[in-house]
Each structure stands twice: as C-alpha cells, then as structure tokens.
C-alpha cells in the first residue's frame, strides 16, 4: 500500500509574521521556513504505518518554489522513501494544489493520501477536502487515530464536543489533527541518508494543471492592538465595570 503525503513549506510557527506596509500580504523575506506542523504529523503517521508493515511506500509531495526541496528532504529524513516536487513560482491557492495533487494521484495511484488538516500560513483547511471531491474518494478529516486494514480505514475524528469514529473504503483522503501522534526528530544519520533518496521534479504544465489563482486577496491588516488593562480595587468595582462599561453581565 502506497501512502502519499503532501507537505507544505510554511513560515515557521515560532515566527511572528508582519503584514507588509502596503497591505498586500505578509512579509516572508528572510524568515525561517519549516514543514507545516500538521504535515509532520502526517509523515509520522505514514511512517508508523510502514513500520507496522501496513504501508509499503511513503511518498512526500510538495508544490511551490525550488526550496520546497528542503522540506521534502526533511520528510525523507523522517522516513518518507522518495519525494516529488511540483516546482512553480506561481501563487498556489488550495484549489490549485488540490488539482496538482489529483494529477499526482492519477500518476502514483496511492491508497491513502494523508495530509495536514490545514496549513498554518493560509489556515485554509480546504486542500484535503477539495482533493477528495476531485478524486471522488471518501474523506476522513481531523483524524486523531487511524487504523488501516482489509482495504478500509477506521478513523477517529475530533469533532465539537467529542470524538467520532468512521470507516471509509480506500483509496481515501485522511487529514491529520494535532493529537494524532507526536512526530519524531530527524536523526543525523537519517538526514544524511535522505540526501540520497530520490526526488523527482515536475511542473504544473507537465501535469496539465492550470494553477491560476481564482480568488483575489483585497487587503491584509494586523489585528487591532489590545488596549491596556485597568486595575480594579475590589470585586464590587469589577462587577460595576462588567455591568456598566463592558455590559457583559
Ligand atoms: P490548506 O488547505 O492550505 O489549509 O492545507 C491543508 C493541507 O494541504 C496541508 O496541511 C498540506 O498537507 C496540503 N498542502 C497545502 N498546500 C500545499 C502545497 N503547496 N504543497 C503540498 N501540500 C500542500
């Protein structure tokens, strides 16, 4: 069983991003980039399925600039067997990524696509769902437990107020939530080994996909600064303020 894991190169979660002065986007010049954390969880889960003898191959795929290669090398250091870079300097929106992943699925015929539930840069939470729709495959989103056996996946999903367990036929798309697992660290020997693993480079044109953006961002702005707090001298004053000023009680 082959598992395809889409991994996105995003601004590292520790970086505090700044909106560009002209409001056209976020300034990512000279900021640290890393693998999207939910995709690290997806790689970890795929590698665990391989270690358990359920999967036979884990293929990582990333779409974007040439330096997404670094992200793919990290995926391979964490245990992916090989990877595919879909190289483009075009702005990629989730629908375009889903179309590219569809083309890769048609070529690679994976049984499971294990992707992150959302990318922490655009917070779209769309790509996995769109891919499932384009492929006409079942989907299980927000997975906190995944079991694969007998051509089916049993997935426990994190939903409002609890957990839901569903069974879906394969091939399918599964998207990872935070509590699915704790990803391992790449060891130095594995980082060295990853340098020799195969990395194939494709382009959207070679896959026959038009990646032109369908949505236009009109403006981006920093959230309003929080006003400073005030110290109250006793509970009575606090209640009076909550009642008369904040009007919340
Ligand atoms: P999003 O819909 O943008 O929140 O992304 C959800 C998931 O889709 C991510 O966690 C990745 O697994 C995958 N994905 C999104 N963009 C890319 C990309 N450019 N390359 C590879 N995978 C991606």
Automatic annotation (TrEMBL):
PROSITE patterns: ETF_BETA (PS01065)
Protein keywords: Electron transport, Transport
Pfam families per the UniProt record, alphabetical: ETF
SMART domains: ETF (SM00893)
Cofactor dependence: AMP
Biological processes per GO annotation: carboxylic acid catabolic process
Gene Ontology terms for molecular function: electron transfer activity
Domain Electron transfer flavoprotein alpha/beta-subunit N-terminal: 23-211
Role: The electron transfer flavoprotein serves as a specific electron acceptor for other dehydrogenases. It transfers the electrons to the main respiratory chain via ETF-ubiquinone oxidoreductase (ETF dehydrogenase).
Subunit structure: Heterodimer of an alpha and a beta subunit.
Family to which the UniProt record says this protein belongs: Belongs to the ETF beta-subunit/FixA family.
Name assigned to this protein: Electron transfer flavoprotein subunit beta
Source organism (scientific name): Candidatus Propionivibrio dominans
Lineage: Bacteria, Pseudomonadati, Pseudomonadota, Betaproteobacteria, Rhodocyclales
């Amino acid at each position: 069983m082959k598992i395809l894991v889409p991994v996105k190169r995003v601004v590292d979660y520790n970086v505090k991003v700044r909106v560009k002065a002209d409001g056209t986007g976020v300034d990512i010049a000279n900021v640290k980039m890393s693998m999207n954390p939910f995709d690290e969880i997806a790689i970890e889960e795929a590698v665990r399925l391989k270690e358990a003898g359920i999967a036979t191959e884990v293929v990582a795929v990333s779409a974007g600039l040439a330096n997404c290669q670094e992200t793919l090398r990290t995926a391979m250091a964490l245990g992916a067997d090989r990877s595919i870079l879909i190289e483009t300097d075009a702005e990629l929106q989730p629908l375009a990524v889903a179309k590219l992943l569809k083309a890769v699925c048609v070529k690679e015929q994976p049984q499971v696509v294990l992707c992150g539930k959302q990318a922490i840069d655009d917070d779209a939470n769309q790509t996995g769902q769109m891919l499932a729709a384009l492929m006409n495959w079942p989907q299980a989103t927000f997975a906190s437990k995944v079991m694969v056996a007998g051509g089916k996946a049993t997935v426990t999903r994190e939903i409002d107020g609890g957990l839901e367990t569903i069974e879906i036929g394969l091939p399918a798309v599964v998207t990872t939530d935070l509590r699915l697992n704790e990803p391992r660290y790449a060891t130095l020997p594995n980082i060295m080994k990853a340098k020799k693993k195969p990395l194939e480079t494709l382009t959207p044109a070679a896959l026959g996909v038009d990646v032109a953006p369908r949505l236009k961002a009109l403006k981006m702005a920093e959230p309003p600064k929080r006003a400073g707090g005030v110290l109250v001298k006793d509970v009575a004053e606090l209640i009076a303020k909550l009642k008369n000023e904040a009007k919340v009680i």
